[in-house]
Structure prediction request, 99 residues.
Amino acid sequence: MLYVLIGIAGARTWLAAPSSARMQMWFGQMALNFLWTPAFFGAESTVLGLLVILPLLLSILAFIRMSWTPDRLSAILFLPYLAWVGFATLLNLSLFLLN
Prediction:
């Protein structure tokens, strides 16, 4: 479901402003999203996972902030994603601190 919401927000942004900073931020967060799994699980590295997930969390926040005025619905569609990645960040950080 999260990827459906992320996709809708991306499509709305693409249709409204395909070469905007918002669209670049959307692509950037997607790249970080795809990198986290191999960094955390593939490399079995909590440090590498943190190095990816912290910028991911910041890019999600940036997309929400950048989208709030021109396309509030896209920003709202990212809120569950923000909650999920925030939770994953806490888990990743906890595993790092405990090991």
Remarks:
- The chain has one domain: 2-98.
- The two ends are 32 Å apart (CA to CA).
- The chain has five helices and no strands.
